[in-house]
């Protein structure tokens, strides 16, 4: 694998982290002539990393796959030849692919790890579709996706799940096995899709895991290493099933690059020049391995994952980036921004006066005030949080979706956290991890920090996800857990709490 430390300069970085516009365009749509046979046949197992869809719109969706007949090849290329390969896709109205709605060809290029991101348009709003890929004689598994309702359309319900934090080495993805069985319109993944740490005997808690080579034992820092780590996570069949079950809307937190990084700064003393390169290749691998639209393709170390989706007249979804633009903790607390000025303005312009019944903020770290020493959360950005809470008070039915902390937490967001009797302005639904920190327990040493606040209505430290159903009248949130993840993926699913939040009356009313 290529070392990035010696002889690094910005020109080298731009050459390495860049990719030609022609290559990108071919990965989204290619001329019909590109549908010719892919030269020498590929080895069997080209679709070993599954299929996915994401970033749905009323008229279309982004599809994704990455060709990798040897997904854990140490060089990060997935066992693929270093040449372009044409890939066909089909989108159908039925599971048997008898009624084809759209088909096309894209080019899988080594520059993008042989991933493709066809952006399919011309579909009907609010409809279920099925999709698949073909390369040579090999046919991928089929995936299910769904377009969003038309703008302004009255929508009776919208069901989604939230997940985050899936350290492969800490446990099996039993939560994804159950999530894949849910009837969902979308999945929100709120960060820490991969982890950058070296995998060693000390942190490999997933029993029965396959033997891994020495290339997995080091903290990842090169493009090839990031690609390999995504392949390891995506080799899990239950994660693949969850991707194939519904379109995903994803954002990142810190472990997609490095633990607790802040904008262009490493917490661990990496030089600014080297960390700029590391962020660039990490963002590049994020795009390569997830069903993201072209807008998310980074330009060197700069990426854009904050974006907005409208679910008819029912909901407006604001996906945030709480890592790339946040200010350093070296600044006085009252001067720090979590989102940066441009993203803050974008968010509040879309929230205040929104015509949607529900206004969702999907972000990486906890908004509710917990303890002052949790500076990696919004607790470390009190003035920025104050501006967010003020905007929520001028927004209909704000709901914050969060991951990061490896605990289920349900909290009411207060106009003044110093006064728990102050007005409740919205709710925050924090999903626990998929596997990070192993099995977990209903309570732990951090529970008192959270439950000291009367506005925190639930704390549970086991693994799982949150299932939500929105209607014009209420939001019902169900916090689901699996009792174990370290031993195997057979754990049953349990609902530990169910809350109702009526439209027009923010708060959490426990139903079970």
TrEMBL record:
Listed PANTHER family: ALKALINE PHOSPHATASE FAMILY PROTEIN (AFU_ORTHOLOGUE AFUA_5G03860) (PTHR43606:SF2), PHOSPHATASE, PUTATIVE (AFU_ORTHOLOGUE AFUA_6G08710)-RELATED (PTHR43606)
CDD domains named among the record's database cross-references: MPP_PhoD
Domain Phospholipase D N-terminal: 49-147
Transmembrane segments: none
This protein's name: Alkaline phosphatase
Species of provenance: Saccharopolyspora elongata
Span of domain PhoD-like phosphatase metallophosphatase: 160-478
InterPro entries linked to this entry: Metallo-depent_PP-like, PhoD-like_MPP, PhoD-like_sf, PhoD_N, Phospholipid_Metab_Enz, TAT_signal
């Amino acid at each position: 694998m290529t070392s990035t430390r010696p002889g690094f300069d910005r020109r080298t970085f731009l050459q390495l982290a860049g990719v030609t516009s022609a290559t990108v365009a071919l990965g989204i749509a290619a001329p019909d002539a590109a549908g010719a046979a892919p030269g020498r046949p590929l080895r069997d197992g080209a679709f070993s990393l599954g299929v996915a869809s994401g970033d749905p719109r009323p008229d279309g969706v982004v599809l994704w796959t990455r060709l990798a007949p040897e997904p854990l090849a140490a060089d990060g290329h997935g066992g693929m030849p270093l040449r372009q390969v044409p890939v066909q896709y089909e989108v159908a109205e039925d599971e048997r692919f008898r009624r084809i709605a759209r088909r096309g060809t894209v080019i899988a290029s080594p520059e993008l790890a042989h991933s493709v991101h066809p952006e399919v348009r011309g579909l009907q709003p609010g409809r279920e579709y099925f999709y698949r890929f073909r390369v040579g004689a090999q046919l991928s598994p089929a995936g299910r996706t769904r377009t969003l309702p038309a703008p302004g359309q009255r929508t009776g319900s919208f069901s989604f799940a939230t997940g985050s934090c899936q350290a492969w080495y800490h446990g099996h993805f039993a939560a994804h096995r159950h999530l894949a069985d849910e009837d969902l319109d979308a999945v929100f993944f709120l960060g820490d899709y991969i982890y950058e740490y070296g995998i060693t005997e000390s942190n490999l808690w997933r029993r029965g895991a396959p033997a891994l080579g020495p290339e997995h034992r080091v903290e990842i820092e090169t493009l090839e290493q990031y690609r390999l780590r995504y392949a390891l996570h995506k080799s899990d069949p239950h994660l693949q099933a969850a991707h194939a079950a519904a379109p995903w809307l994803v954002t990142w937190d810190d472990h997609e690059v490095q633990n607790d990084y802040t904008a262009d700064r490493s917490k661990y003393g990496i030089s600014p020049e080297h960390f700029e390169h590391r962020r660039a290749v990490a963002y590049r691998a994020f795009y390569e391995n997830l069903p993201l639209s072209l807008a998310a393709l980074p330009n060197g170390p700069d990426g854009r994952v904050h974006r907005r989706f409208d679910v008819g007249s029912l909901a407006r979804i604001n996906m945030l980036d709480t890592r790339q633009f946040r200010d350093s903790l070296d600044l006085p607390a009252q001067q720090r921004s979590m989102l940066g000025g441009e993203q803050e303005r974008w968010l509040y312009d879309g929230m205040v006066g929104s015509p949607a019944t529900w206004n969702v903020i999907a972000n990486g770290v906890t908004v509710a005030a917990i303890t002052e020493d949790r500076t990696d959360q919004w607790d470390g950005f009190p003035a920025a949080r104050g501006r967010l809470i003020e905007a929520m008070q001028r927004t209909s039915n704000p709901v914050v979706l969060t991951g990061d902390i490896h605990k289920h937490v349900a909290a009411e967001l207060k106009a003044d956290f110093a006064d728990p009797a102050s007005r409740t302005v919205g709710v925050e639904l924090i999903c626990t991890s998929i596997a990070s920190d192993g099995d977990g327990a209903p309570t732990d040493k951090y529970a008192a920090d959270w439950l000291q606040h009367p506005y925190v209505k639930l704390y549970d430290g086991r693994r799982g996800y949150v299932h939500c159903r929105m209607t014009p009248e209420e939001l019902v949130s169900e916090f689901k857990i699996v009792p174990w993840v370290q031993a195997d993926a057979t754990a049953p699913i349990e609902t530990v709490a169910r809350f109702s939040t009526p439209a027009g009356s923010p708060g959490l009313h426990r139903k079970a």
